[in-house]
């Protein structure tokens, strides 16, 4: 119904050539209602497709309304430019509904008036036999209106270029929205928690460094070296997981994999600390 109303009003204005403010205002109001109805239909469609987002206008995905307004503004500039192009072909003389009769009866008098009024309008002589009938059609000066229209078109074109550059242009400082940002932050928080979960990596490393190697057997020294190598592997797993979680370009699967590896590495620290304690020489 909204679209039908818009078509009817537009057809009335185009067919009848209505130039009144009421007709134009009605067309604008119907256009606003039609636009609202169109966006509402998009919202209903988005809801049925499961794409409705209550955080944004009309529940549409982010950027949808900006895109619609940008395209609408492009159409507006195109229509206005077309209107100006059509108006440039108009004549400077418009015949009035009631012609203005001149007080002349001879051709000589009519020619004199034609010369005198050449810059102000057109003197039309009817008949060749005196007394003649002469009417005056004033010249319509559209220069001021054309200048104003050109200035408006220039402003609209500038705004259009700015809008297209802002919305469709590339912005090097703009980062894409990460749909897994919340999960990445949660993983970083979990990794920070693992680093302080007892026994910590630093505690186990300290215990290994404080071992009196001169009191250990060769077998114990070999076992202690293996423990230190595994502790380096645990540290590398933690560092890899943190770097992956902090890298927005890293795939979310890699973040999950490195997080799981860090958790498994941290789970081995208790056993490593126990093995170190068992190797301590007894007094």
Automatic annotation (TrEMBL):
Keywords: Membrane, Transmembrane, Transmembrane helix. The chain crosses the membrane at residues 20-44, 65-86, 148-168. This is Uncharacterized protein. It comes from Phreatobacter cathodiphilus.
């Amino acid at each position: 119904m909204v679209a039908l109303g818009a078509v009817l009003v537009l057809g009335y204005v185009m067919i009848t050539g209505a130039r009144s403010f009421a007709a134009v205002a009605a067309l604008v109001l119907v256009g606003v209602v039609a636009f609202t109805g169109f966006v509402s239909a998009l919202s209903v469609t988005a809801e049925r497709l499961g794409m409705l987002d209550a955080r944004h206008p009309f529940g549409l995905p982010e950027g949808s309304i900006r895109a619609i307004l940008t395209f609408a503004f492009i159409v507006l500039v195109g229509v206005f430019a077309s209107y100006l192009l059509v108006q440039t072909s108009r004549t400077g003389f418009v015949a009035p509904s009631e012609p203005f009769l001149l007080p002349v009866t001879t051709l000589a008098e009519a020619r004199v008036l034609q010369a005198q009024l050449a810059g102000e309008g057109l003197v039309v002589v009817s008949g060749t036999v005196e007394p003649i009938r002469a009417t005056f059609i004033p010249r319509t000066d559209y220069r001021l209106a054309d200048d104003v229209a050109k200035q408006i078109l220039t402003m609209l074109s500038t705004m259009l270029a700015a809008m297209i550059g802002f919305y469709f242009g590339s912005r090097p400082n703009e980062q894409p929205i990460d749909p897994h940002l919340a999960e990445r932050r949660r993983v970083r928080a979990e990794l920070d928690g693992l680093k302080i979960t007892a026994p910590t990596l630093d505690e186990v490393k300290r215990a290994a460094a404080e071992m009196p190697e001169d009191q250990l057997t060769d077998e114990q020294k070999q076992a202690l070296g293996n423990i230190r190598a595994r502790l380096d592997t645990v540290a590398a797993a933690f560092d890899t997981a943190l770097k992956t979680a902090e890298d927005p370009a890293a795939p979310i699967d890699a973040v999950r994999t490195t997080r799981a590896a860090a958790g498994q590495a941290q789970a081995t620290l208790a056993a490593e600390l126990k093995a170190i304690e068992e190797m301590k020489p007894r007094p």
